[in-house]
Design a protein that fits this description.
The protein has a single domain, classed as TIM Barrel (Alpha-Beta Barrel). An eight-stranded parallel sheet has the order 7-6-5-4-3-2-9-8, with helices on one face. The two termini are 22 Å apart. β6, α6 and β7 form a beta-alpha-beta unit. It is globular, with a radius of gyration of 18 Å. 42% of the residues lie in helices and 14% in strands. It has ten helices and ten strands. It has 291 residues and is an alpha/beta fold.
Length: 291
């Protein structure tokens, strides 16, 4: 038993920054990807997408239909700057409003899954209150998402607060909703010494709706690890073993390659290499990729 066919997507930050949406979608299609993940990061330019007017939204929908490549997921990493658990009342409220706008944008664009960064606080101090605020604010977000039929998924992070699927499931004990699930990052769950990645995937399977694929360097007693810009095949992630685990578990969700190459001169070369590296290992594990 196991999956025979899976969809592989790519995050927007892997694609050339200066490209139009039409050309980003075309490039993703040309390189063998099934969908693109939109980035709403900490920059004003990308946060401003949450306030797009009807014409801007409709133009992107037309690009999606013309290319046949959907934007299935959104990465809402703006919540690093505006954390849901902030002790600052204004930021706490702003985080919720950002999430509400993201949910409406997702609904308008046909995005099914908003990935929320699992930070109670990122730049500020973590406290018991920031942890409680995170759960309280996330409950409001999930309620709004449920009313609009958009999935909210928590990513396992480069941060100890939520660095495993097991910790996402702990949050789900407080927020009981089918509209809150897990979006594990194979690199992140592999980097933390407290985690057994294969076991984490197995125990958390019923919560996993999509998976980020990236390489990382592990956290050790002497090093903080490295969670970004580790070229595929140069890090510590045991991709083949984890893909085989997912094959055995009959995982049915999608995979998304995650890189930060949008401003690199060799951006296209990195996309091609990443695609071939990941697809090769997926196929070796018995998982075929839908073209």
């Amino acid at each position: 038993m196991g999956i025979n066919m899976a969809k592989l997507g790519i995050n927007e930050k892997s694609l050339p920054f200066e490209m139009s949406w039409m050309n980003k979608l075309k490039l993703a299609k040309e390189q063998g990807f099934s969908f693109v993940e939109m980035s709403i990061d900490e920059t004003d330019t990308r946060i401003s997408r949450l306030d797009w007017d009807r014409d801007q939204r409709f133009n992107l929908v037309k690009d999606i239909y013309e290319t046949g490549i959907p934007i299935d997921t959104m990465m809402l990493s703006a919540l690093r700057k505006f954390p849901l658990g902030s002790e600052n009342k204004d930021i706490y409220t702003q985080a919720y409003n950002i999430c509400k706008k993201a949910i409406i944008l997702a609904k308008d664009l046909g995005i099914r899954n908003i990935q929320i960064a699992g930070y109670d606080e990122y730049y500020g101090t973590k406290t018991v209150l920031t942890a409680e605020n995170f759960i309280e604010n996330l409950q409001r977000v999930v309620d709004f998402a449920a009313a609009n039929q958009v999935m909210i998924s928590i990513e396992t992070m480069d941060d100890y607060f939520i660095n495993s699927i097991a910790k996402v499931k702990k949050i789900k004990q407080s927020i009981v909703s089918p509209w809150l699930q897990a979006y594990p990052d194979l690199g992140n769950i592999s980097a933390w010494p407290d985690n057994i990645p294969g076991q984490d995937l197995m125990d958390g399977l019923d919560s996993i709706i999509s998976i980020h694929v990236k390489d990382t360097l592990s956290v050790t007693e002497n090093t903080p690890g490295k969670f970004k810009n580790v070229p595929f095949g140069t890090g510590d992630v045991e991709f083949l073993g984890l893909f085989k685990t997912l094959k055995r578990l009959a995982y049915q969700g999608t995979f998304t390659i995650e890189m930060w190459s949008e401003n690199e001169n060799d951006c296209l070369d990195r996309i091609i290499y990443a695609h071939d590296f990941v697809v090769g290992l997926l196929m070796q594990s018995g998982i075929s990729i839908e073209e």
